[in-house]
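Continuing the batch. This is chain 6 of the set; chains 1 through 5 are on the previous pages. Same settings as before, nothing changed between runs. Recording input and output for traceability.
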Amino acid sequence: MKKFKMPTAYTLLFLIIIVIAALTWVIPGGHYDMKVDKATEQEIPVSGTYTQLASDQQTPQGLWEVLNAPINGFFDAKDIALFVLVIGGFLGVIMKTGAIDAGVTRVIRRLKGREQWLIPILMTLFSIGGSTYGMAEETIAFYPILIPVLIAAGYDALTAVSIIALGAGIGCLGSTVNPFATGIASGFAGVSIGDGMVLRLVILVVTLIVTILFVMRYAKKVKSDPSKSLIANMKEENEKHFLTQKTEDIKFTGRHKAVLTVFGLTFVIMILGVIPWAYKFNITIFEDMTKALGKIPFIGKLLGGMMPLGDWWFGELTMLFLTSSIIIAFIYRMGEENFTSTFINGARDLLGVAIIIGISRGITVVMDAGGMTATILYWGEGMLDNVGSILFTNLSFLFYLPLSFLVPSTSGLATLSMPIMAPLADFAGVGRDLVITAYQSASGIVNLLTPTSAVIMGALAIARVPYSTYLKHVWKLVLGLSIIVMVILSVATIIS
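Output for chain 6:
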């Protein structure tokens, strides 16, 4: 008898489309009166206005609608899907230059003999990568570099796994502008990526400090007494295996510095672009600058109809990352053919993510067409009558924990759930940004240890650490992080 294997995210999401279509034959359709939120210009349902559709107005979804759902879903999410593909090309160009690898290698080399400082420094760097661009698969390249350094310094391979995997993972947990988690979720919730950024930054800082202290405590224990290592039985074998490997001596050049400068500035501009300075904080400096530039003779026309920072969304962000890719290619002297092939290959790496977004959005298309979305919102509104805002926020976080395991794709989960969870937040009197933060925090926590994560399992395979040992190592940390996040979410709900 063959062992059961979990289906891929594509199959799982398409099966959900079929199930939802079948439910439209059972669950009656309905609708809400809608109003436009002045702050976000997003249509939101008006509480207490639900009406069930008459029997002759019901629209159960059939086979044609099921097969068309992913295509229509892709059309609905084309701006987000294109953004993801361009981000893939941008990251492909960055990785081709080797600037990130060279930068991290330089840090390791400079701290030789003071390896204990590698833990906070590298974990902070990896967390920034996770928080800004969802650094995950890119971390795999650093294990062969870092593991020999730490073993030679008296630590173990599990310490290296903790530095890299937990560092980048905490960054995703406390995502500030991660386009694959926060960006997509914000898009489908109809709010700016900048909404809730301060809260997410607090979660990032607090959880990162706790995790750094956790890893440093374990590393200190191993160095003081190697028998305390959770993989002490593999000490000699790992020393033979890893210390005989030669890591490439990567030089950190001036071009690498320039590339990393553009890389960093791109995310700074992204953050400035999505924070709603004018309509939320009444800060009009970027509007004033844009108007002033537009009035300069010839220069104004040459620059064209620029959008001021603070009003940017997926179209402008896509343009930003495409432009930065071209600038980096010029700095690194890639050449036109090399650049285009590298960019296309990078975009190809994230084609699967774009397709997942389309399929996930197809679920919402079927629900909306069958009138089921309004009915589920109505049921949710009824359940929230006696539920306070604090409880709702924490229930959202707990709800996303098992859902993150079943749908390991952060983009797929955001696309699937936000069209329902965001309006429910309106009914509960909770900001949509809090639901987004609850979603990404839960997804980030699950991805620290889920066996469905190719990144975690790949890292453990390289480090020769059994999954059961890793789980024993991190489960208490994960539980503690969950409690910390719930406390921060509760406080944020109270003061919002």
